[in-house]
């Protein structure tokens, strides 16, 4: 029996399961999923968990049940590509014939002193719970600093404002304007929402040090009661420890067939895989489609296409609380209530397909 092992129950590997089960898996292939949690987490909504506006059970999706799928729970300590085994905490191991690494990411602190020690994270369910306990337990009038004004920072700041109108929120953006790589109309809409809802956006910021209850922005010291870091990510340590070739962001370099060079049995998907695009759930799902196609061909000993089709992303969606949002789709911008309904509808469809 051939063993396909999926590391991580994120968006990429969930798409692989959706495509292979129940009827597209060869009779001689068995799937093993390895994850620390007994459910798939909707990471794109971790900001709402941290802000206290969405309960944890609403961002969980059960893993599929199938006799051809076994699930192993545990922390991964090492990936041994020489012996084709995944070593787990406690001494257990899982052997594989084909492996898909989809273990996601962790915060990247860019060498900023104190950032790891004195800031909260929303990169995992557990860390988002910790952020929730800290943020929602703050006294009225407390100051929250959110470092990083990408999509995660924007959504966290807006959701926290909706959850805690009594907090002072400061959003630190390295750029001259919010979402600087996208149309100015979109930036202006988001900035206006923050202005109208009393969220202070600090542009052209450069956080040089984080202390307990203090942020250093350039030469200025800014008192804060809590800090959340959303200013960069990198593959998790167990993937970095593989010593594989990586791009400038630390993501693992892969071939057009989604496997690592010199090993056609090890694939990488999602936040760990190098790409011309920034990490996203949409990208992970598109990469997974490629992996499924290649696996099927290789299992049948059929020739691979000379050139794989390019991955094309449709755009992105963001929320500003529960009532407003923004969508950038096919070079067109949609803002307001309609955009928020579009995002809610997409989430509903995803849970329906995968739940």
From TrEMBL:
Segments forming domain FAD/NAD(P)-binding: 3-287
A Pfam family of this chain: Pyr_redox_2
Range of residues in the leader sequence: none
Keyword Hydrolase assigned: no
Organism whose genome encodes this protein: Viridibacillus arvi
InterPro entries named in the record: FAD/NAD-bd_sf, FAD/NAD-binding_dom, NADH-Q_oxidoreductase
Keyword Transferase: no
Keyword entries, A-Z: FAD, Flavoprotein, Oxidoreductase
Protein name (Swiss-Prot/TrEMBL): NADH dehydrogenase
Molecular function, one GO term: NAD(P)H dehydrogenase (quinone) activity
One GO BP annotation of this record: aerobic electron transport chain
Required cofactor names: FAD
Family: Belongs to the NADH dehydrogenase family.
SUPFAM superfamilies: FAD/NAD(P)-binding domain
């Amino acid at each position: 029996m051939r063993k396909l092992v999926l590391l991580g129950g994120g968006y990429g590997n969930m798409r692989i399961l959706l495509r292979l089960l129940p009827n597209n898996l060869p009779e001689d292939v068995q799937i093993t999923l390895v994850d620390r949690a007994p459910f798939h987490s909707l990471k794109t909504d971790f900001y709402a968990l941290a802000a206290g506006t969405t309960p944890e059970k609403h961002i969980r999706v059960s893993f599929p049940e199938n006799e051809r799928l076994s699930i192993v729970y545990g922390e991964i300590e090492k990936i041994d590509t020489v012996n084709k085994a995944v070593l787990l905490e406690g001494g257990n191991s899982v052997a594989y014939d084909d492996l898909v690494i989809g273990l996601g990411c962790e915060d990247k602190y860019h060498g900023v002193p104190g950032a790891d020690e004195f800031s909260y994270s929303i990169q995992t369910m557990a860390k988002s719970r910790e952020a929730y306990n800290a943020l929602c337990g703050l006294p009225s009038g407390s100051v929250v600093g959110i470092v990083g004004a990408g999509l995660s920072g924007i959504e966290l700041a807006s959701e926290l404002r909706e959850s805690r109108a009594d907090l002072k929120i400061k959003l630190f953006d390295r750029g001259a304007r919010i979402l600087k790589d996208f149309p100015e109309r979109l930036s202006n809409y988001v900035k206006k929402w923050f202005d109208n809802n009393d969220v202070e956006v600090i542009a052209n910021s450069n956080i040089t040090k984080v202390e307990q209850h203090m942020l250093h922005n350039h030469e200025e010291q800014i008192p804060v009661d809590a800090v959340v870091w959303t200013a960069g990510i990198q593959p998790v340590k167990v993937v970095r420890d593989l010593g594989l070739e990586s791009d400038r962001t630390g993501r693992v370099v892969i071939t057009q067939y989604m496997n690592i060079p010199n090993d056609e049995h090890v694939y990488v998907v999602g936040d760990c895989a190098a790409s011309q695009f920034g990490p996203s759930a949409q990208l992970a799902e598109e990469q997974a489609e490629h992996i499924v196609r290649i696996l099927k061909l290789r299992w049948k000993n059929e020739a691979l296409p000379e050139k794989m089709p390019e991955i094309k992303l449709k755009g992105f969606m963001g929320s500003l609380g529960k009532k407003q949002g923004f969508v950038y789709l096919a070079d067109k911008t949609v803002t307001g209530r309609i955009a928020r309904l579009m995002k809610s509808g997409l989430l509903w469809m995803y849970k329906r397909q995968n739940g």
